[in-house]
Batch of 2 targets.
Target 1
Amino acid sequence: MERWSRVRAVVVVVLTGCSHVSYVPSGNVAARPPKAKSELRLFFDLDEPNCKYDVVGFYQARTDIDPMAIDAAERGVDGLVNIKCAPPGTVGAGACSAKAYVCR
Amino acid sequence: MTSKAVVSLSVALFGCAAPSSTLMIRSDDTAHKLTPDKATILFVSDLAHDSFGQPNTHAGIPYVVFDENTRFLGELIDVASFEVQVTPGKHMFAAAASRSTLASCFAFRGEFAAGKYYVAWLRFQQVGTNQLQMLKWLFPRPDSHSIHAADVMAGAPRFQGDMVQGQKLVDEAGNAESNARSCKPMDEVYGNQAPKYNPPEWGFDTVPH
């Protein structure tokens, strides 16, 4: 099972490598029904959700958080935490990273 | 004395000194305490830096911390901390720029359990993709993935408040009591991103280390 999840992670990176967002799952995560993007909770920087939660995947985006949020909603996770974006005027400005989470 | 010499002396005396609170003194007692019949709260700040770790304009501005009865608890300036013990149950705590009418305050509510240790961290927090940063209370808690309470505590020197002078400052702030009552807690500012009351489980059973 663990081997399959690694293979799947690599496949996901390869498939999404040329788009604006990449996603690497943190392990075997049960599939969840998609939800609306507006239902997704977004937590920037060190802010955290109120619930006890597990990180289920890692995002990187070249432009802004929108492609991550769209993908995360399709995966049905509860939200994104640790959202960090490179500030304007720095190398890679606008690039963002985040972790997908689900409440326990 | 020439003006150049006066400037040099001023810089020597004040220019390089870290900003300090007139209401707080450095505490010799740095041991953290847990009391079985009280809830202990450590208020910590990092107001010297923004969320990218860069110096910011709020460096050197003191923030007074008070409870729902406008009882002075302490003052935070730059990177600092102080510990208070409260009766278990529901409380509201707020911070406001010290030399103000306390109208511009940042508050949070919580339910605090006896024998537990809570950490409340006041820092600049990025709140959107536009890099906007706001002062916000964060709560390192036992189930935190992002913040380690022990790290937050280790980096902040401990202080003790001059409770008489501190209360005087709060009492003398214009309309302090009504302004303090109008403090909006975080759940009213950020909606359901923040709980109405922080749950008692956000406290530690032992002092984080």
Note: Chain B touches chain A at residues 51-52, 123, 125-129, 131, 136, 138, 143-147, 192-195 (CB under 8 Å).
Target 2
Amino acid sequence: MIDLGSRETANGSPTAEAEPEARRGVFRRLRESLSKSRQALTEEISASLFDRIDDETWERLEEALILADAGAPTTAAVVERLEHEVDSGAVPADGVAVRDRLIEILAEVASTGRAPIDLSGEPAVLMMVGVNGTGKTTTIGKVAWHLSKEMGLSVVLAAGDTYRAAAAEQLAEWADRAGAELIRGESGADPGAVAYDAISAARARGADVVIVDTAGRLHTQSNLMEELAKVRRVIAKQIPEAPHETLISIDATTGQNGLRQAKVFSESVEIDGVVLTKLDGTAKGGIALAIASDLGIPVKLIGVGETLEDLRPFDPSEYAQALLAE
Amino acid sequence: MFDQLSDRLQSTLSDVRSRGKLSESDVDAAMREIRLALLEADVNFKVVKTFTKTLKERCLGSEVLNSLDPGQQVVKIVNEELASLMGGTGSELAMASSGPTVILMAGLQGSGKTTACAKLAQHFAKEGKDVALAACDVYRPAAVDQLVTVGERAGAHVYQQGTEADPVEIASWALDQARAERRDVLIVDTAGRLHIDQDLMSELTKVRKTTKPHDVLLVVDAMTGQDAVAVAESFAEAAEFDGVVMTKLDGDARGGAALSVKAVTGKPIMFASTGEKLEDFDKFHPDRMASRILGMGDVLSLIEKAEQQVDEKQAEELQEKMRKDQFTLEDFLTQMRQVRKMGPLSGIIGMLPGMGAMKQLKNADVDEGQLDRVEAIILSMTPSERASPGQINGSRRKRIANGSGTKVQQVKQLLKQFDQMRVMMRSMANGKMPNQQQLAQMSGTAPRPKVRRR
């Protein structure tokens, strides 16, 4: 069972609480995936922190955070804060204490009012946006599978990527696996119309959740961003408060450009959360820290692998620990 | 594309440039700025360290400090070092002397391999080569369908065996087919894979050993962060790639991945993918790109682009019309479409020397939508109206506005601007350059700042 969102399941039992056993599994997996190939980083951190605390410590920490893609401003802010706390005596100049405090600070930066995904709408409408190749369609497939197979909800998918060749076929495969219904248009059809049809279909059938896929687009293409805003308006015409949740997928390997992506997308469609994908590689996904601290947009889900179970809720403190785990 | 990096470097360097004498601390300060600028551009941390060290040594060398114009020397050195960091002058693909040239494409998920395959295929097809694609991504749902669609659009034949067969076998079978059918080029698309996925990486090695490609290209997303280096190193081992295709360069990514991959693996960036269309694919010229980062413009690329897109005869005819003051709205439309074929205007502006530094121009963010409106307005006119816009009165304006989905005000404005343009053309044809005021009126903006002389 997975805490994808808060909603009573079809049979009425709450699903928000995941079992401790499963949780441990999740985090072990996350920690493993985050730390497996980054021994260099963790060695550097633990060594420098357990030795003595001096200027070199802060320099190494800066290096480690930069290498994790946290970005210069976020890195500077975190290190400065920690250094100040140690200098002022608020945190004892002891390796373990400093390290723990670092994890706390990182988690604090990452957690900006984390809320579960809002599934309260009737139907709840989720919209997935993002740059090309960040994993939108795959994420939708996984979310649909969890909602349908684990939470017992009926799901309708809207194949709003009418641009990329075979995008609808890709989503169709996922719909098939998840047992969700797929609403699609012709190739090149108006994505707004597809979303509209999907919501109408969901309402007619009393479905619980509609997930709207959209074509990947670079945030610099203003006409495509305008198209996205239009899809959102079309959805809102059907259900005024919809989409209840708009998620942007950000590839964990993304560098500082991820911040621009989140910013520009949120200007055109109001982003509720980030799905940080491909965390199973060696990339540390530190850009999520920058996004949270700069824009106040929380990470809601993380992708740590190819299988259906590898979509996970985001836990800031576990993430921070995994980032620096030995 | 490298805008942000370019901005940072330019402001740092213009500071250095303005000084007559440089002290060591001046150079240190500049190096700190450059270091931060490169880090913000996602250049790998270790690459930055080495780069600034080399740079500093050269800048403190006698060639700079003793020169008459040390600031200018520093700019020159940064430019040279940037270019060599990205791979000196351009590199070429190895082609087979007989039989099909085999090119293997590899990369992470979502880096844009399938699209890059089709773009590369079209690149060869344009040279008159018979190109085939092998669909070896059997893992991602519908990847084969995607390759078939975009491959055919690119004018290439696609060898595919669905998703049940083994990728190594598909590759080997496709190569046999390509040989038998005497194709010139075979491009092998593979599934995206994580560089730490042992099984898939060894599968990639098998595909490489089976097909013995002439070139292996690693597809890298320009937005990649610090991890680009780890990825490139792993793929260098498993795929022994020869060069890099940098994708999504049309975004505003600062392109640090581009700077780092060459530095770490020694493999050059060969192609750059710069847009959604199949034509948005160019050979990568590191030296030109370095100049562009520094705001020195990339006139060579611009000229090449123009040569590809502009029909010379048509251009001459247009020029003749301008001279004779017979330039109509119809001609204006043709010309506008030709310029737009060269790619987004913001990209073209970036290629002009000095333009990168003109904030006002950049922030104006050339509105492609406005150009669409202009097209729509002209298309809503009758041929006779396009030829002699003088006859367009109030009711015609209303009809045109309705037809093009614009406002009467916008139609009026276009006609006014067109009028001013004709006045300007007349004076240009008579050998006079338009003044700032005229230019400003034409573009509907306030007078622009003068381009700084270097």
Note: Chain B touches chain A through 45 residues (CB under 8 Å).
